[in-house]
TrEMBL record:
Protein name, per record: AprA
GO BP terms, alphabetized: anaerobic respiration
InterPro entries the record matches: AprA, FAD/NAD-bd_sf, Fum_R/Succ_DH_flav-like_C_sf, SdhA/FrdA/AprA, Succ_DH/fumarate_Rdtase_cat_sf
The organism of origin for this protein: Desulfallas sapomandens
Gene3D superfamilies: FAD/NAD(P)-binding domain (3.50.50.60), Fumarate reductase/succinate dehydrogenase flavoprotein-like, C-terminal domain (1.20.58.100), Succinate dehydrogenase/fumarate reductase flavoprotein, catalytic domain (3.90.700.10)
Length: 507
């Protein structure tokens, strides 16, 4: 868990966390939003533990810290435990699953609900609501991933996060913020395994292919980014930037010195062969457990490539860019702060309400409040939900839903199925047809233009306004036209069509 302050034990203060976030995002953060989440997040983590989440403990009963703000958990059961709590609270009769939300419904300047379709049954859903909380994840697959071929779809962030939060809030008319803040995490190469435990818990170094430690050799570069380049800890984007400079100069790949880190931790037991052997086994188990708890595919990759972390280092690399508001990104809707601490211009009645009446946002959907991660996103969801209930109590009228608009949205939703069915026999191979484009090909087209013109992996994460971005906007204009010709053979492909429309709007 990446956000836990330990305020009750006097380990940290909320003010210190706000300062950390602002430094790490180089000033791009709303103090009021970060503060509000930070003062409530510990209570959320305590709820997780109460519900059954295994959290590592010291002999004294304190949580085991990975870093200053991070605590260690057995994460393989994390999502199941939190989801079970939601099910128990709401009751299964009040939960709709496998429904893909397409569009918001509006009554003037107020949210009125949403429409969507079942990805398993031939059902179209119309949800009427007095208030709506958007928390539909960030955006993955907008940029071309490093993974290709049989690994296509492998990403650091969940591939089912397809820009739906941004699409929903934008289409509702909400003001957005920090869309230029793309998150590019450095992770273990190809399987995107987390590096945090290795840097913070195992105290590992990262080096270039020729043995240089870029954080040391390029320290002078940080002066150019003062004052943020001079703070401790060094902002994540600057740490990543220093490594990417090495790669740009042909010194890649970058290597995580797992073997060195494990050896150093076991070194204290070197005079006792039995204790040394036992410690090495413990460290080896923790190294594998770090991946098996969170990124099983990284463990599979180690096994497939005969990689023993205690014997040799592993490659790390910058991933493709993502749009998220919860991790070290900041993109999302511009939301109201809490009444007691937000400046007057940042408060309009209800915490976490967007600029659309009755529409609230949390997690990846809300912007300018980075470093909330899973625990902070859950805390923010609690904050937003309580504010939404207050809104309903104080605005207890049912918004009007224009059923003609609903029918229009329903027709647009199923149009790809009709287009495919009407034209599939025109060609011998239904995958290639002049009357429609399949969602997978549409996705490849989007990813290619974003990768090459908007600072993806192949462009070494760089772009410019006079040429690249203008060209991307031109091509996105063509894509918006082509989106009208998306074709789907079944409900699964229909979902893929709409996922890519959402991605396109995020782009």
């Amino acid at each position: 868990i990446n956000q836990y302050l330990g305020v009750g034990k006097g380990k940290n203060t909320v003010e210190q966390y706000v300062e950390y976030v602002k430094n790490d995002l180089m000033g791009i953060a709303r103090d009021d939003l970060v503060y509000n989440i930070a003062r409530h997040v510990d209570g959320t983590v305590h709820l997780f533990e109460k519900w059954g989440l295994p959290i590592w403990k010291t002999d004294d009963g304190d949580y085991v810290n990975e870093g200053r703000w991070q605590i260690m958990i057995n994460g393989e059961s994390y999502k199941v435990i939190v989801a079970e709590a939601a099910k128990n609270t709401l009751g299964m009769d009040n939960i709709y699953e496998r429904v893909f939300i397409i569009e918001p419904l509006l009554d003037g300047d107020r949210i009125a609900g949403a429409v969507g379709f079942s990805v398993r049954e031939n059902k179209f859903y119309v949800f009427k609501a007095k208030a709506v909380l958007a928390c539909m994840g960030g955006a993955v697959g907008v940029f071309k991933p490093r993974s290709s071929g049989e690994g296509l779809g492998r990403s650091w962030y969940p591939p089912f996060s397809t820009g739906s939060s941004a699409y929903f809030t934008i289409r509702a008319g909400a003001e957005m913020t920090c869309q230029e803040v793309r998150f590019i995490p450095v992770r273990f190469k190809d399987a995107y395994g987390p590096v945090g435990a290795w840097f913070l818990l195992f105290k590992s170094r990262a080096i270039s292919a020729i043995g240089g430690e870029y954080m040391v050799e390029r320290r002078d570069e940080l002066q150019n980014w003062a004052p943020y380049g001079l703070v401790k800890p060094i902002p994540a984007n600057l740490r990543n930037y220093l490594g990417m400079l090495d790669v740009s100069e042909g010194k890649g790949p970058l290597l995580m010195m797992t073997n060195e880190a494990i050896a150093k931790l076991a070194d204290a037991y070197k005079d006792d062969p039995k204790a040394f052997k036992k410690k090495m086994k413990e460290l080896e188990a923790e190294a594998w457990e770090d991946f098996l708890d969170m990124t099983i595919s990284q463990g599979l990759l180690w096994a497939a490539t005969n990689t023993e972390p205690e014997e040799k280092p592993s490659e790390i690399a910058a991933a493709e860019p993502y749009f998220i508001g919860s991790h070290s990104g900041a993109s999302g809707a511009w939301v109201s702060g809490p009444e007691d601490i937000a400046p007057a211009e940042y408060f309009w009645g209800y915490a976490n309400m967007t600029t659309v009446k009755g529409l609230f946002a949390a997690g990846d959907a809300s912007g300018a409040s980075s470093h909330k991660f899973s625990s902070g996103s859950h805390a923010e969801g609690r904050i937003a939900a309580k504010a939404a209930i207050k809104f309903v109590v104080e605005n207890n009228t049912q918004p009007n839903v224009d059923m003609a608009k609903v029918e229009e949205l329903k027709a647009a939703t199923y149009k790809p199925l009709e287009l495919y069915e009407a034209n599939k026999n025109f060609t011998t191979d239904p995958e290639v047809n002049p009357a429609y484009i399949k969602p997978k090909m549409f996705m490849f087209r989007l990813q290619k233009l974003m990768d090459e013109y908007v600072g993806g992996v192949s462009a070494n994460f760089s772009t410019n306004k006079p040429s690249s971005l203008d060209k991307a906007m031109e091509l996105l204009g063509f894509m918006k036209e082509d989106a009208e010709k998306l074709g789907a053979a079944d409900l699964h492909e229909l979902r893929r069509c709409w996922e890519n429309i959402h991605r396109m709007w995020q782009a």
